[in-house]
Each structure stands twice: as C-alpha cells, then as structure tokens.
Amino acid sequence: MVSLPQPPALGQPVPSSHHAVSVQLPTWDDIKEIFTGAKRMQDVQMAGYPRSFIHEDVKKLHQVCIDEFANDSAACFLFPSIDYANGCVQFATSSAIHQEDAIADHLLSIRSLKIELEASGKDQPDLMMLHAVFCPADITKPVKEFWRLVGAGISSRLAQHCMDYMRSISDVTGKPDTLHPLIQRRMSGFPHRKLCQRIATLLERAPACARQRELVSPNDVYLYPTGMTAIYQAQQLLSKWRDTQSVVFGVPYDLTLKLIETYSRSVCFLPFGKESDLDQLEEHLVEQARVGSPVQAIWCECPSNPLLRTPNLRHIRKLADQYGAAVVVDDTVGGFANVDLLGVADILVTSLTKSFSGKADVMAGSLVLNPASPFYSDLKRIIEKSYQNHLFSADAIKLEMNSRDFLDRTARINDTASYIMRSLKPLVNDSTCVLTKLYHPELDPRPENYRAQMRKETKYFKPGYGGLFTMQFEDVELAKVFFNCLNVHKGPSLGAPVTLAQPYVQTVFHNQIEWAGNCGLHESIVRVSVGMEDKYALLVAFHLALAEADRVMAARSNPSPVKTKSGATLTLEGKRLLVGGF
Questions:
Q1: 285 touches 325 (CB < 8 A)
Q2: What are 180-196's pLDDT values in tens digits?
Q3: Is 255 helix (H, G, I), strand (E, B) or coil?
C-alpha cells in the first residue's frame, strides 16, 4: 500500500519551500503554545502563515529600512501602496478600535522609499516604490494587527527580489513626481492577464443553471496580494457606494467578520445561517429600510469555514433584490471548479492562496464584479477610479503556473474527501467511538443549499464538495489524543498539496473560546484540508488516530483492553487492511 509523506519536524515549513504558507505544528500543545509566545516555539518556528508570521526575507528588508532611515528602537512595516500605509496608521492610532492600546499619532511615521534594482527579467520591475510605516519597536501590536487583518504587507517574493537585486534605496517622501507605483497598470504583465482570463473562464464554465446575462470578462477580475486584501477592498468599495450597515449571515472565517466589524458603519451578525434565521434577516432588512438606512451588503460563504454549511443563497438573493442590498460571497472553500455563485452574488471574493494555487507557496486574492448585478455599473465606476494591481509579478508568475492543473487537482481532492467522509460517517453513531459529528457539505442537514450552487457535470469534470471537512469529538482531551496521533501534516491554511489538520478553535479563537462555542464552534473540533495523498493511506491514518482516542475513552471507565470499532479490521474497496493491531 502507498504510504503517506512523512511530515517534517516541529516548526519546519509546509510544504518544503522557501515561500511556504504553512508550518508543521505536530501536537495540540504546539498549537496552543505558539499563541502564548512560548520560548521553545520561538526557537524552532522557521515558517508560518505570512499574514501572521512575518517571513525572514521581509524581516531582512524591514531591517535595511531601519538601518537606513531610523534607529534600533524602531520597527518597520512595508506596504506596496501609500493608501495601505495610511490605512495602517489610521488603524493603529484608532482609540475606537484599540482603546488604551492605540498608538499615539506622533509615534508613527510614513516614508516613501524608492528602490532601484538591477534588471532581472522583462516581467520584473527595475524600480519600486514601497511605503514604510515606522513605529517604536516595543509597541508594534496594532500595526501587526493591521498587517494580519488586511493582508496588504509586501510578499516574501517581493522582499527576496529587493534583497537580491537592490542597487540603491532612497527616501523620496513628499517629493513630487517620484511616487512610481509598484505596478502601474491593471494587468501589466502576461501572468496577470492570464490569471484574470483563467478566472473569468472558470466562472463561466458549466454554470449551475441557464441564465441570460452578460458574461464575466477578464476586466471584471481584480487581483490582490492576499484573500484578506480582496475582502478589505470589497468592504471599501461597498462603503464608497453606500455607507450603511452590513449583515454577516453564518459564521465566516474569523478575520472576515473582524474586518467587516472594523470597517463597516455597523454589523448585524446572524451566526447560525439557518432557514429560521432568514425570517430574522428579512425583519432586519425591513427595519433598516423603514428608518431610511437600507443595508449595504449581505456577506456569506459557500460553504462556510470551518462548519462547511451553505445558507439558502437563492432566498438571500431574493431578499437582497427586494430590499436593494448587495450580496458578497466568499467561494474560497467551494472553489471556482465546484460552485457557481454568479446567480446569487454581486461580488465574489476568493483567496487564491488556497485550492486555486494548490501548492501553498504563494499568496493572492481576487475580487470579481458580476456584470449581471443591478449594481454593476456603480460598483465598476467606483473601483476603476482607485484600483491598482499590487500582486507582485513573481507571485503572479508562480500562481499562474500553479493553477494550470486546478481542475484535475480539484477532482482528485473532491473524491478523496468524499471517500473519507462516507467511510467515517458510520462511526458518528457508534457509542464506542470518540467522533460525535462530521461537518462536510455532503453531510450538511440541508445539502440542497450547496447542491443548488454546484456546477453542471461535464465530460471532463464532475463537481464535488471540496476538500475541507471538520471532525468534532467527545471532548477536548480526546480530540487532543486523536490530533497528536494523526500522522499527517498539521498547520494553518487549506488547499495545500498535502493534507493539513488544525484544531480550529484552539488556533483561530484561542482568546475567544466561549464566544466561538456560542456560535456553534465546539472547542474539540479538528479541521482537515485534504491533499493529494493516496486516499486509502489517509483513511488508515484517520482510523489509527481514532483507534487510539477510542482506547483512551474506553479506559476511562474500563481499564481492561477494549476492541473499538475504529480499530477493527477494515475493508476498503476491495483492499483488506488491519488497523490498530487488533
């Protein structure tokens, strides 16, 4: 039987790439201690998700700027646009956001820096303008929060390129005619044009239902350095269009909610996203219209992360049409290949870092305007006035290469995830098994909501339910046993070439565990993003870990050896495998 790839040591990058976006955190305690700042974790962590863990190449370029333009008591954060630098300062100095942790205005400064580079290829710039935010090194928390939340800091490839080819760096703050942007035009190079065309083509492929409408063109696709930047820019766009309240329907990725709460006038959060909540949504839309402040936008995910639930998007579209609200859908988890949201969404936002890239070695995001939207003309006019393409050319080149096999990879990952879900589902109702719930679009109590958005099957591709699923356990201690025994890669992100497991609440809501529980996110959940490994080998790995957790649960009440169902002999599509040594 095919074996799984051996995970690397604690703190090593996942995958083994200089620009990896994940990191190996093998145990439950590793996850917890990385957020408490434990020294043992600081000593070994060599990589991390780039919005949360600043890459070594980025740190080196920051240090160059400190050495040239500041002193050892300063910290530096570089952005590709003066708008992001200004936004960072406004965020970091806001007492409304940070209360007593806000940084005083006079402690922050922005310098515009011109970097001249040796010629390195026709797709690479030989002149860059970066914008540095300087602050005291001992009070960087609010600036780091902006870096993480908005995701607009420079990429590791951009930093590496500067360090490899820099000829000179100079401060041109306030000097006229020197603010040469990092990338001037909308689709300034081949990889950007190709990416926009590829995304537009995928969005028009095998639609979920026939509809008479304008087709998405490459000019309706806007590229950004990260998925969170795309969400930030979508929120900025909506606020310029109509500065009123937003609605978030269902539990989204945690930073999505935080960003909307930070930059919207106000937010109505309906965390459960159930059919019964649609009545509450309508009541809220009616009330806001009555007081003359119609809702700006309704934000959803398809499906949601990490509970993989899809709301009734067609009902939401009907309500949005009735009350004049825009609908924004994040389709990162479902993916362009599986789901078609153009029948319901005015704006699509996507983290291209995930399954679209599939290699976990480049960051990017996209925003797509639906040309069939009743708000298209207004939104298009607003976004075209300010849009600049700050996706660094080397990142765009890598993303374009990675995404060439997107459909083939998606088909395999769909099949693996569904196979594992069907295999594990019987254990949920077994009293001898620690597994209490499985979350996956195929197992959702209302799977018809997701299926309504699935693309039609073609000769070459059958849409599926994506590669993400979440497991819930009897309690945290048993989840910990399972996680520690699971022999796969473990760390943040999803859509990687290898399977990634993550104790989601411990990772994402480590300071808000009670709040997460009130929103239906149990502390014991483990989120799994399926990779390209052999599906039989993966299933064996899950059964081995479950068998150990079952043994621990059984030993609590019966110290004698117990044969649990998770550790029994399994028959896997004609392959008989002995699991757990029973």
A1: yes
A2: 554 445 555 789 999 99
A3: helix
